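Hi everyone,

Forwarding the result from last night's run.
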Amino acid sequence: MNHIIKKYTECFKKFDEESIERILKYVDKNIIFIDPFNKIKGKKSLEKLLKDFLVKFNDINFSIYNVTNDGIYYFVKWKLDLKFKNKKISFFGISELILKKKFGLLAYRLLGLWKKFLR
């Protein structure tokens, strides 16, 4: 696995203010981030999005299950557990990461998202 992708995915083991700062080290200044709720461009916009995420949700825990690639495109299978208004929620997803050679992560696109509500 590419060292940038490895370091990027390791940042999600503990998702907090410090991990956001580490995440930003591995993304290109012109990163494009697309998921069902957001479409943003630029490192500053990504930083705001991630910090807002920390404010809105509690007990955030990402689990990375698998990373596959063809050299440029990386596919990450993951699970996100969190609390929103004291309700536990789990999301399962597959994300596409596009690596810009030697400059960091250029694009993030969520390919699939499955939600499970827990009591």
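The beta strands are 27-34, 39-41, 58-69, 73-84, 87-100, 104-117.

Cheers,
N.
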